[in-house]
Write a structure and sequence with these properties.
The complex is a heterodimer. Chain A is elongated. Chain A is α+β, with helices and mostly antiparallel strands. In chain A, strand 7, helix 5 and strand 8 form a beta-alpha-beta unit. In chain A, the strands form four sheets. A six-stranded mixed beta sheet of chain A has the order 6-7-8-3-9-10, with helices on both faces. In chain A, strands 13-12-11-14-20 form a five-stranded antiparallel beta sheet. The N terminus of chain A is likely disordered. In chain A, helix 2 packs parallel to helix 4 and helix 3 crosses helix 4. Chain A folds into two domains: about 220 residues, Rossmann fold; about 120 residues, RNA polymerase II/Efflux pump adaptor protein, barrel-sandwich hybrid domain (OB fold (Dihydrolipoamide Acetyltransferase, E2P)), CATH 2.40.50.100. Chain B is mainly alpha-helical. Chain B has a domain of about 230 residues: MetI-like (MetI-like fold, Orthogonal Bundle), CATH 1.10.3720. Helix content of chain B is about 70%, strand content about 0%. In chain B, the strands form two sheets. In chain B, strands 1-2 form a two-stranded antiparallel sheet. In chain B, strands 3-4 form a two-stranded parallel ribbon. In chain B, a hairpin with a 2-residue loop joins strand 1 and strand 2. The relative contact order of chain B is 0.12. The N terminus and C terminus of chain B are likely disordered. Classes of the chains: A alpha+beta, B mainly alpha. At the A-B interface, strand 5, strand 6 and helix 2 of A face helix 21 and helix 22 of B.
Chain lengths: ~375, ~575
Amino acid sequence: MHHKRGGRKVSGVTLEHVSKTFGEAKGVENVHIDIKQGEFFTFLGPSGCGKTTTLRMIAGFYYPSQGIIRFGDMEMTNVPPHKRNTGMVFQNYALFPHMTVFENIAFGLQVRKMSKQQIKEKVEQAQKLVHLDGYSDRRIDQLSGGQQQRVALARALVIEPSILLLDEPLSNLDAKLREETRYEIKRLQLELGITTIYVTHDQAEAMSMSDRIMVMQSGEVQQIGTPHEIYNKPANRFVASFIGETNIWEGIVREVTGNEVLVEIHQSLMLKGYVENASSSADLSVGSKIAVSVRPEVIEQCNSNSEEYDNKVQCEITVSEFNGASVNYMCNVAENVQIKAMFINQGSRVKQSGESIAFQIPKESIYFVG
Amino acid sequence: MNLQTEPTRTLKQRRSLVSSKYFVYVLVAPLFFILLAFVIFPMFQTFLQSMQMEGSFSLANYAKFFSLEHTSNLEALWTSIYISVLSVITCGIVGISMAFLLERYDFPGRKILTVLAMVPMALPPLIGVLSFTFLYGESGIIPRALKELFQLQQVPFSLKGIWGVIVVHTFTMYTYFFMTASAAIKGLDPSLEEAAASLGANRLRVWRKIILPMLTPSIVASSLLVFMVSMASYTAPLIFGIDRTMTMQIYLSRTNGSLDMAATQSTILSIVSVLFLLFMRWYQNARNYQNQSKGVSVHRTEVKSKAGRYLAMVLSTLGVIILMLPILVLVLLSFSKDGTWTIQILPPEYTVAHYVALFTDADTWGPIATSFKLSSLATIGNVIFGVAAAYAMVRMNFKGKTLMDVLIMLPWALPGTVVGINLITAFSEPSVFSFNQVLVGTVWIIPLAYFVRHLPLVFRSTSATLMQTDHSVEEAARNLGASWWYSFRRVVFPMALSGILAGTLLAFVQGIGEFVASILLFTPSNTPISVEIFQRMYAFEFGTACAYGVLQVVLIIIVLFLSKKLTGDSAGSAV
């Protein structure tokens, strides 16, 4: 039996302890994930973290040095790229410059030796899907960046791949178009129910689109989880600071009473939080060093004259930033201890640098990372 | 291909030949074999020959070369170096100042000069030298005209000897400097100068600290190039009668039948050339100021003062005349009746008979047909080899990549004379590489020489276009299910086609104009055009010789025009 091309056969992807080295250089180390059928899964990390390397191993452009790759229950570890039936959208789109829009989209179908009629139908259908009907005869260089992007998407989807691979597909678009295309990709993915692996360094993109995210740094997996988990329960300092903005302070555990922990960041900054809000790598025994992460948006402003609350901070504003929707304050608590706080703009007066301000940090918003 | 039914198959079965990581060696092995057979083996044979004296190992040839009693060889080496150094200096001055004038200033006649500046490229080596002797030689048109005009006893000046060689070199080789310097000046980001100026640097300082350092790599690269080409120059010394150059010595040794000495001289010249090639590669890798910014535009300063404009006009007219004269004189002479031009300034009688004869007379048509045949054969080889090698070098990783790169560029560094001698020593006896045939004296030896000499042309232009095309495009094709061969055919080849065609045309036309190796290897039944021109010259059939020359020049101009069209268009457009 030949590889079944007709009818979409969506499969999940499993990477079992996959590592890749390039000569001496480490590419990725021990990636172990199980991407479910129909899932939108994102590899997130700074450039050089190994996310693209991992994607290229799934596409078949690299073969792992160790480990096994499976699509569904089929082993794919060393299958050449053209026999994997994945649809990939490249960062620079990689459209064939010598072919028209139609020919670009038809390429994969021609490879599959479909009849002319069938190809025409499918290509037209794909063009409709990405709102490019009527562009058949355009040359690639006559298209805008956003249109090229959609041709690339149509070309990848038309072959009815079992997995859709997207390698930073939005990074060459301007901000507004990026947002539009983001919704478009998500819409298509939901509509087609296709397993999608998305590579990006943009955490906002990752957060808004993904079912699950794998955060990577220098070839190693840092955390795998839903956007909610990754944001609210970061596994370590890197994840906490890479995803969204955060205050990270180092301190020493002073007291543990019941489910409450008291950490000293500085003589003038003692913070209380709950034991359960700690990553697995955090050591909460008295006297141990620990890092505390507090998101700027959880900080509340309070009256500096009122009585002492838990986690009350008195400080001086060094930078005040008005962004329209929000106000950001950068403040000095003590020497070498800064605090970033963010407030939704509700029309009240924006404080200026040099003024003093008092904050309160809710106990439940304090997260201990290792 | 039943991937789904047998999930537990072993890896070996699954990998086809093409997707194996050893596939690359299947592709590069024939390439290495060809380089071994036609570049390394002939060079090595020449080297062996140079180490022999009457059949046994001896360094006598080298002792003779460097002996202080018969200094002709050392003199030749010295003269070659001396001519080359002077050529570098004169070409540098002419080429760089022209590049600056044309790229930085706007003046009447700039556009036409920019086009004509490349004319010397259109002259095959032999034609360039010949038209110079017709124009400026002792019985040349200009000296005779001046003598007549001013009623002098003798011609006031004439081009001869070493200075003749250097003038011809300057005219034909300044384009190397001109092209690289123009490209470098075009690539200079004006904002760099503006940045320097805004930081308080005055004009002189900007020049010393910004412009010159940025141009240094291209100046050094073209100096090395011109030096190499001058060392390899054979036609100019031949026509101006400078016997004491390396290339002429090799030719003379060969015609005198002392192949040992020819081999020794070739080996020494090869060593010099190869050292220069390696030095050049090293330098280009060590210093590379690629411009970081995109969309650069040079602003030209308009020459505004009246005096300046007149001066510019006079000078550019002069420039246009100097650049056009060689071709004009060639055309003029091609219409002159053979044997009628003796002591007059210009040929007295004209006819179109030579052109008619070119295409109707079997004797005259013969060399043209021969040249087309020989060059086509060589070009077919160049295309197959060049495209495969360019693909391997740009897109694949394999052990010995640097070696292959050097080996491909090697024939380009070797003087044509040396290539000729190498092939003679290697293939005057049967060998494995020639299927146990003697190739010297057969129809195959000249195409082989053209093939070797023009090896880098298709390779370079193809790899240049391949480098511009994104690798991910090929990956996209593979990802969509195309096999390696399918994506090569449908994606890689069409995208590189403009470069392949440009290189092919260039290789072909170079073969048509080739003289240096042909003169060593031709047989009476296979006489290419250039050799025929040379022979007609000696028979004082200037008209016919020049008609051949015009044909060569026309072909070259067509090809240059086409390849500019081909490569000038954006890489994306379908060809």
